[in-house]
Write a structure and sequence with these properties.
128 residues, mainly alpha
Amino acid sequence: MEEVTLPDGQRGGVLGLGAVLAATSHSDSSSPILRGLFVRERLLCQPLGTPPADVPAIPEIASDATTRERFEQHTADPVCASCHQYIDPVGFGFEAYDAVGRYRARLGRHGRRGADGRGHTRPVLHLG
């Protein structure tokens, strides 16, 4: 193990650790759903339950779409939105980090959008 110095403003607390970010991702892509669920269920103790068995697949979206663009479909469908309105906004807050927890300044397969962590999102709703 080796200590590294990181630029100010890119990391903070346990949620900014590479191990946490990698554990809440897929092997080849970040996952706002896994990251949002981790925060809601493990840290805030707000269990959301399992999704219904008949959840439809997410429709195909342009290959250069950002993760946020791909997953915004969840909140467009009222059935999906019943849970994803609580999950996705939290998970989108981690999109400045890739699948293994590296900070990234650009998003999308072609690096076409910024990921400065100051993007606009829906309010994070409280369960209760």
